[in-house]
Amino acid sequence: MSLVERIKTLCKEKKITIAELERKTGISNGQIRKWDSSIPGVDKLEAIADYFHVSTDFLLGRSDQRYLDLKNTTESDADKKLHEIINGLNEREKEFLLAALDNTLQLAKSLAKK
Fold first, then answer.
1. What is the predicted pLDDT for the residue at 6?
2. Beta-strand (E) ranges in 1-41?
3. Dihedral of the CA atoms 106, 26, 53, 82 (nearest 10)?
4. Which of 8, 50, 78, 112 has the most crowded CB, counting CB atoms within 10 A?
5. Alpha carbon of 15 to those of 11, 48, 103: distances in Å?
6. pLDDT-based confidence at 69, cuts 50/70/90?
7. Are residues 30 and 51 in the same domain?
8. Structural domain that includes position 78
């Protein structure tokens, strides 16, 4: 299932249109439908994932799990899982991950100052 198909499915579940989703997440009108032939920015992908409370891996079709279940997980298990995930990424995906982490850290710092 493609990124756009997953987003359409999530929209149906939430009973909203793609246009509504774009408005609610600050994405330009008609942009999501173009993602079948182009790559969205990390910030756009994160906005969609946050809106639906799913992982970006789920949106990208890298996982059928909507989010990681960390209940009853030890720190060692979580560390192993993180290494598995990172080792499974290609260079481009690693760049996306690093950009997402950098954005998250910058946001956390700015929120902490408030």
1. 94
2. none
3. -40
4. 8
5. 6, 15, 30
6. low
7. yes
8. 69-114
Q: For the full predicted model, state whether its pTM sits above 0.90.
A: no
Q: What is the pLDDT of residue 108?
A: 86
Retrieve residue 76's tokens: 């060692």
Residue bearing tokens 């493609």: 2
Distances 20 to 1, 24, 64, 68, 98 between C-alpha atoms, Å: 22, 6, 25, 27, 29
Instruction: Answer for the pair 24, 14: CB distance below 8 angstroms, yes or no.
Output: no
From 67, 82, 101, the end of a domain falls on: 67
**pLDDT tens digits for range 31-63:** 999 998 988 999 999 999 989 989 888 998 888
CATH number at residue 54: 1.10.260.40
